[in-house]
Amino acid sequence: MSTSGSTRAPGTVAGGVRPAPSLPWAVAADAVAAGLGVDTAQGLGEDEAAARLARHGPNELRAAPRRSAWRILAAQFQSLLVALLAAAAVVSAAFGQWVEALAVVVVLVLNAAIGFATELRAVRSMEALRQLGRVHAVVRRGGRAMTVEAEALVPGDILLIEGGDVITADVRLTSASKLQADESTLTGESLPVGKSERAVAEDTPLAERDCMLYKGTSISRGSGEGVVVATGMDTELGRISELVAGAGDETTPLEERLNRLGQRLVWITLAVAALIAVSGVVAGKPVLLILETAIALAVATVPEGLPIIATITLARGMRRMAERNALVNRLSAVETLGATSVIFTDKTGTLTENRMAVDGLWLSRGRVAVRREGSGPAFALGGEPLEPGSAPELRAALEAAALCNNASLGERPGRGAPAGTGDPLEVALLEAAARAGIDRPTLLERQPEAREEAFDPDTKMMATAHRRAHGDARPGYRVAVKGAPESVLAVCTHVAAEDGSRPLDDAARDAWLQRNAELAGSGLRVLALASGDAEDANAELARGLTLLALVALRDPPRSDVGAAIEGCRRAGIRVVMVTGDQPVTAASVARAVGLSPGEPRVVRGADMPALLHGDDDARARLMAADVLARVSPEQKLALIRCYQESGAIVAMTGDGVNDAPALKRADIGVAMGERGTEVAREAADMVLKDDRLGTIVEAVRQGRIIFDDIRAFVIYLLSCNLSEILVIGLASAFGAPLPLLPLQILFLNLVTDVFPALALGAGEGTSDVLARKPRDPREPVLAARHWRSLSAYAALITLAVLGAFALSLGPMGYAREPAVTVSFLTLAFAQLWHVFDMREPGSGVWRNQVTQNPWVWGALALCTGLLLAAVAFPGTREVLTLARLDPAAWALVLAASLAPTLLGQAGKALGLGRVA
Q: End of a domain among 694, 716, 745?
């Protein structure tokens, strides 16, 4: 079935029985049952049920394949940078450079181990959220009721339905008594929907098919029977599951950027190797020397530390987000929210609490506002506190709301969950009465219920009769009535007032009806409360009543949503509501949470196809909408594609089954952990464990910080590597001895480069990170300005190293080995001091995000110790081909290594060398 009016037929049954109608909601119930070859009074026989189960298969959805440990491990090697490192290791091994090859392999293994451990833990945590217990259903088979596992249901089964049941298949109702279903997870409808067995038109949207029940929804009240018309993947829920599977995983912006960077490094490596080979041959140099130089340059070109530092930075970001109640299941998705430019959010349960609450009561003297929770006056009239004890008509209305009610209050089972059981609307009425000190059980002890007329969809009213309290002089029974305002007003003759009651004439009745229309037009659910007298409990209850009040109810916005939306607005991120609910209701919630500065612009799902396929103005109108209402799962997918094609990075939040395809298709899907359905969590990249939209704002902040950190250490690493390339390349071009040897370069890349870069990746970001606009999704990790900056840094370092090398060989008269040691140490320390060049222009020289990062100072201390140890210990000196230095050489090293940083800081003072 689909919201557009089509469905799969469950198939032909044995013996040539006709298949069920393809649109069962548009056909009489007996015709549907006949098409499925079942007698509703008897149900299927056991043999026939078994045959159908064999034909149709179990009533279950295809489970998403579990990400095995091997798949997670293999994913760690699916990177161009990793492939580049592997190629460098192979080349080194092929030419007998076994130490260099082994060192690169160690890097690859370490990178994979860290990424594997972090991602495996996250994936298994997500899978733990998805465990659900087994569900059973009551069916009629062979003329008797029996309980079967939901997986055993087949088309043609007669399902027996009671309040509280979870619907486990798509069902065409054959009978219904006061039946209501909660379909919010499927349609986004925030209120329970009344059900009946009457057929509806073929083109009726899913949310309005009153004669159908759908897999994944639940019964809030009443009872009924129905014939199963679809099971498993043939259900509406199964169709949505197929949309989820077809939506496909999206490559995150970070993955795309790092891949593009890797591609550039591949070409740079090939170009450098070719240049050295050609120049060496032309110069007539020995083949062995050319080979040694080429290997040194290849090692210098590849940033061995980049993959591992990126992995550790993302893993740290994942951990920080988990501490802030955002569980991410893929490393690369950590950064994506930082690039997000638009968030599509569901309404029910995401912007609202997914529970009803009394917004106010309209008495004859005006609106009484109701405070749901907290201290302060529970009721206020015109801004002034109003005590129910001093307002008889208010107390009478609240007592009627408690008496004409089948719900009960209890302990709140979870954050934001209803504080009771039963119809959410009736729970809300009991909560309002409780604020006035009215307890239904206590009230019933004094005024026992003698009779109930349950809610009737035809009269749209419910009535109860109660014995008068002991000592009440009035004879007979007290009548309490609630229902649709137009229905209740039709049987009212009086209206309650401060001083008693007064007649309700036609003009007054019209005024109340107009008030009802205004309240409903603002997205509120409106009920009327009335009371009366009856001499006999069996008499007609709904006549000659006194109108007490109109009650306005709403699904209240979550308390933190307004601040979260404002936070997104400051960060340059649009928040758009996409819901299956009514336009009026959605617009009311949008106004309440401040979704847009002015009146929210609303587009209906029915109008979306024309706008999507229209001209540029039509698409612009669609993309300018703040609210999209009555939207189907397919339309959500089309909307996301539309935004992505325009260059936006899209995040989608949701908790319902109907959100799952869009969660999968978005650049990052964000599911609610407390309220979210298993299907939504399955499709999401991130789960908010506290269901707070404000957690997304914090995730955006963390995502932006992570990208800034990644960009900073990429600039740092590549400027260090480029300086190594220039040092070797220029020395080779001028026929000078090599200032650095391959193993020395590898030592720098794996030790002294990695720790400062790791420290940069642990930065806490700048205070203005949420004040910026989202990054251009087409911008690479390194834009042209960054390449210019890192080239300038590399040039300064290169000049310092070659200058120190030339002084060592020339005026200072050192042999080649001590001179190479001078150039090695100059380059090493210049790279360490270079970390201070990563501060932002305009920030203080002494107080900035680099100098205030304790990890930076720890990294510098560690690397300095490692460099001194490499020179001091004979074993490392021999492996790295280093020599002991005299004080003059150390002075040269210190002066030459500091020079590039001092010049770099001068450039910062002039606003040059941007990092972000």
A: 694
